[in-house]
Amino acid sequence: MIIVLRLLSPGSGPVSRQLRHAWSCYSTTALAEPSTPSVKTAIPGPKSDALRKDLDIIQNTDLVQFFVDYDRSVGNYIVDVDGNVLLDLFTQIASIPLGYNHPRIMKALTDPANLSQFANRPALGMFPPAEFGKNLSETLLSVAPPGLNQVQTMACGACSIENALKGAFMAYRRRERGGSPPTQQEIDTCLKNTPPGCPKLSVLSFNNAFHGRTMGALALTHTKWAHKLDFPSPDWPIASFPYLKYPLEEFVEENKAEETRCLAEVEDKIASAKRSGQPVACVAVEPMQCEGGDHYASPQFFQGLQDICQKNGIAFLLDEVQTGAGATGKFWLHEHFHLRDPPNLVTFAKKMLTGGFYYTPDMRPTEGGRIFNTWIGDPSKVVLLKAVLDVIRDESLLEKTKDTGNYMLKTLMEAQSQYPNVLSRARGLGSLAAVDFPDGTSRDKMVNKLRSQGVHVGACGTSTMRLRATLTLERKHVDVFADRLHAALRDM
User: Does the UniProt entry include the keyword Metal-binding (predicted)?
Assistant: First the structure.
């Protein structure tokens, strides 16, 4: 199917008449999505290998898997430089909402009315474009988590966490001061990295958590040693995240006991931190631990966690970087939890195309420059987000994601039933799905086998294979995955 995109008229704007005419004559042809994978070479192939050797001269390429021909990648299929066509169920580490080269994204990119948004990247904290507030209202605020109407853009997930933590620390100290301004001693000592200006506060995180690789976010990250080794980190409390049994409905009592244990540990860690003179100002948690192994917890666990935070005057931060933007059939995973009150902070990035965080009014800085960097986001990404949100609404993608996700989970459960010695703990919610293997070696073998058969998947935790589909994935794509999964399982 060939789609020709006709550009909207740019109207009267800063673009010259000649340039407007050139853009109005421009069109782009969107390739049809392949109907099936096609593998021609080993992956990585010879062209990928050559490109990697060239790149390795100037930077470390140990994690490079293959080089991509993004011009030829379409929809749910990614094409490498050697011409291999793969069904992509990893999607740039869960960050592609609509698939590759989606027509509505291309239209937004080539619309002359959006040209200045891409040509000029402003320092948003000082010189935002005239339409920025309106664009935020029509995009980020239109899908804000229930009860939240404050938002701050950022460039990526890690810097979203960093600055959300700053919001939590500032709010905690404002409460301690009782609304009084900082003392001169605080102002002087903060420039020397000493108390009272730099107070001894902490953030509670969970084992197997991943919140990013910058230094503050890294202090909350506890997955792989490569993320942490050689880097100084504050001695902040780490609690156990529930390790549940699946299917959840068959292990209700066991899982309830596990979550009760973990909540009691959280309370104990908070009390211990206070006694040690380093009180907890914020609890940071993923609604589902992704990088750490796709670990779930029940709504009751998160309700209890929020209760603990509120009882102790602690900010409750939900990190929705990987789980937001409709990935679970609701726009935010924590909407499944039916929390009594909104979380204090909700971070986002990946499928949202821009980083940032929502926050309650008490988390809002009271002075300019406290949450700030040169760009604090990129208005062009908000333009693209508008196109994404329009497609989500126009094509009812939340409902479709829920349906396709249930179909994917059924596929994993059937495979698990047929191969119980290989697969276990199949689980999923919308486009987020996972299954465990006996060990990391067998998991990695499966990932490689699937890739050789034209399906690109990811890994997480110690032995988990994870699937991170787009919101446009359909049942026909799941059938392609299922055929190749069973073929690989028979080989194993």
Answer: no
Catalytic residue among 82, 91, 328, 350: 350
Tell me phi and psi for residue 318, to 5 degrees.
-105, 120
Q: pLDDT of the chain along its 492 residues, tens only?
A: 333 333 333 444 444 444 444 444 434 456 799 999 999 999 999 999 999 999 999 999 999 999 999 999 999 999 999 999 999 999 999 999 999 999 999 999 999 999 999 999 999 999 999 999 999 999 999 999 999 999 999 999 999 999 999 999 999 999 999 989 999 999 999 999 999 999 999 999 999 999 999 999 999 999 999 999 999 999 999 999 999 999 999 999 999 999 999 999 999 999 999 999 999 999 999 999 999 999 999 999 999 999 999 999 999 999 999 999 999 999 999 999 999 999 999 999 999 999 999 999 999 999 999 999 999 999 999 999 999 999 999 999 999 999 999 999 999 999 999 999 999 999 999 999 999 999 999 999 999 999 999 999 999 999 999 999 999 999 999 999 999 999 999 988
Catalytic residue among 36, 194, 366, 374: 374
Establish whether the linkage from the previous residue to 181 is cis, with ω within 30° of 0: no
Active site residue 350: yes
Candidates 80, 88, 294, 319; catalytic one = 319
Is 374 designated active site? yes
Q: Which domains are delineated in the chain? A: 132-392 (3.40.640.10), 398-491 (3.90.1150.10)
Contact 376, 356 (CB under 8 A): no
Give dist(CA 86, CA 84) in Å, integer. Answer: 6
Mark whether 210 is an active-site residue: yes
Nearest 5°: CA angle at 212, between 206 and 214? 120
The CA-atom distances, in angstroms, between 339 and each of 252, 264, 303, 307, 316 are 20, 19, 6, 10, 11
Catalytic member of 66, 210, 241, 337: 210
